[in-house]
Sequence to fold (210 residues):
Amino acid sequence: MRMIRLGILGSGTGSNMLALLEAIRAGNLKAEIVVVMSDVADAKILEHARNAGIAAEWIDCLGYANRFPEEAQRQTALRLLDAGVDLVCLAGFMRLIKPVFLSMYADRVLNIHPSLLPKFPGMKAWKQALEAGETEAGCTVHFVDAGMDTGPIILQAKVPVHADDDEHCLHQRIQQQEHLIYPQAVRLMAVRLGFPLWWWWITDQWADHR
Ligand code: GAR
Fold:
């Protein structure tokens, strides 16, 4: 029986990708990251993937600065299917996913967002929380639908907002929680997609006694 195969899409630093990789290496997540893709050719996330020996690939958005054109989405989903990806994890991917992609990965695309959705969808959610004078912020893992940060919620974690917080320190506090709940959410999805926990437990026991 094989492990769940992940494809990760990101545009930036890739700390959530690293958190998933760390959970896998620590034995806390029975999964395999098979490909990491980015719309930003020199994104750190691709460098991290290459360093970890994971296929790292640039997504050609056909010259558009912010849009993710349908043909590019179709090609990306085809590439993920070709790699045998079971579950797509958006990790700081900054372009909107369209129905053409979602129809090829129905209910199998997750996103992590740095707010307690439905509050503060969109860019720099931590900044939006500070500007709104919130005393509590957090992060959310949710299914992706065709809206912006709108799909059904899987897991959330809260953090306090301190009076002297600036954008950087609040985002960092939120990210510490992101790195915990994303692996947990992927574990839940693995079970939902039929990768049974009992099999992991038996193979772990067996490995321990060899
Ligand atoms: C994370 O904070 C993630 O929640 C956010 O981008 C950051 C990526 O960090 N995503 C969004 O805002 C999506 N709407 P990372 O590259 O270090 O994982």
Helices lie at 15-25, 44-51, 70-82, 99-104, 125-131, 167-192, 197-208. Residues 130 and 165 are 8 Å apart (CA to CA). The chain has one domain: 4-112+143-158+179-202. The pocket of glycinamide ribonucleotide is lined by residues 10, 12-16, 45, 91-92, 112-114, 125, 149, 175, 178 (CB under 6 Å).
